[in-house]
Amino acid sequence: ETRFTSPSHVIPCLDDGHVGSSHQSRQSSVLRQSLRPIILKFEELTYSIKSQTEKGSYLFGSQEPKPNRLILNGVSGIVKPGELLAMLGPSGSGKTTLVTALAGRLNGKLTGTVSYNGEPFTSSVKRKTGFVTQDDVLYPHLTVMETLTYTALLRLPKELTRKEKIEQAETVVSDLGLTRCCSSVIGGGLIRGISGGERKRVSIGQEMLVNPSLLLLDEPTSGLDSTTAARIVATLRSLARGGRTVVTTIHQPSSRLYRMFDKVLVLSEGSPIYSGDSGRVMEYFGSIGFQPGSSFVNPADFVLDLANGIVSDTKQYDQVEINGKLERLEEQNSVKQSLILSYKKNLYPTLKEEVCRTFPHDQTVVTRSRAKSSTTNRWPTSWWMQFSVLLKRGLKERSHESFSGLRIFMVMSVSLLSGLLWWHSRVSHIQDQVGLLFFFSIFWGFFPLFNAIFTFPQERP
Fold it and tell me: Which of 81, 118, 442, 446 is the most buried (most CB within 10 A)?
């Protein structure tokens, strides 16, 4: 039995009771306490969904249920603190489903086990986990600094003062290289703002504010140029070197990005075909008889071709272009099955042995973390603090709608018209006055209500 020891390239996390002169302020000491290494292990994960039956089949009396569609099939792996794991695979291979399952956000029945330091997913683990979705969920009319400041006020612990929380947001802005655009609005579909890479870094910064021990990202480089993508992955690698466990899905990395990964998990139609060190990918596939067409090839492109069942670099692409369809579909399926069987025979036994023999922490650390479970389950801020911050953020975001020139003109016009109708009205015309009061109540009741109706769907998580 072997216990886990931190790699030499990982910055060790400070002990909870450690007090030293290296801490610049009470702010940094409080944030250091929230960073506890997490070993992520997942074994034999299988996930399937029900296939929808065609509506026309019921008309002809055919009610045979379709087989379930298998999204994940026996996926296993382990990620230790200080490591950056990249999940590769073609579109529809199950990468997003897997990272969503590891984040504890997957609906439906998931078979297999996912453990965090040997324990299941709990609310305490959730507060130590950062999850960045593929689509950036940001308020378009807030600036970069306002977005991170409101997040800091909501999610940082109550032991920090307001000034210290704002300083932490400024530190994240500086670390992620967002100083130049900190006063620019985020932007969206109808308003111009910061670039896509800067928007992605803001999403990462929101999760980095709470100093997560486990960081999960879904397609952080999608839609970005190679230079911006390399900057994002370099940021993730530096975060991993700080003692965090980082897992990301990536669609088509360049060779420069691939060299930054510590581990690689390759999926083909939900089944793994490789799991291990990124530097041994070419050696492994060469040992089972799959060689690239040229010596100067991107390892990521090579494994993605294999995940699609394509062995040669040019022959099958030319055939598709000439014939207009894929005539070697059976051969591609046989290549995929061969790769899956080779994984189960050569890689899975070693991986399973590593998963079983790795222990998360020293027993004293585990005992201490369990003793402090009552403190970690508390909310970081009070109910009143959350309400006030959310109210200020909502007013700031909606101010462009509530105080627009068109809206002010409409309200003033209705007020002026109503005042003229009420002016010099006689007491004998009581019915007209009652009708005007009814109009006032309906207008001022439904006018703000329509704004709120369209707000709720946008605020849903």
Answer: 81
Is 303 in contact with 375 (CB distance < 8 Å)?
no
Half-sphere exposure of residue 106, counting CA atoms within 13 Å on the CB side? 23
What are the residue ranges of helices labelled H in 19-143?
Answer: 26-33, 55-59, 95-102, 123-127
Both tokens assigned to 222: 């999608």
Dist CA 290 CA 284 (whole Å): 9
- CATH assignment, 2-50+66-123+220-371: 3.40.50.300
- Pair 201, 220: CB distance under 8 Å: no
Which is higher by pLDDT, 233 or 189? Answer: 233
* Contact by Cβ (8 Å): 143, 182: yes
Helix (H, G, I), strand (E, B), or coil: what is residue 399?
A: helix
DSSP summary character for residue 281: H
Give kind and range of the element (H or E) at residue 47. strand 40-49
For 338-354, the pLDDT digits (tens) are 899 999 999 999 988 88
- Backbone angles phi and psi of 75, in degrees to 5: -90, 130
Q: Taking the model in full, what pTM does it have?
A: 0.75
Q: Look at residue 17 and tell me whether its pLDDT is greater than 70.
A: no
Tens of pLDDT along 264-283? 999 998 899 999 999 899 99
Measured CA distances, 425 to 74, 412, 419, 443 (Å): 80, 21, 10, 21
Residue type, 424: H
Instruction: Count CB atoms within 10 A of the CB of residue 30.
Output: 18
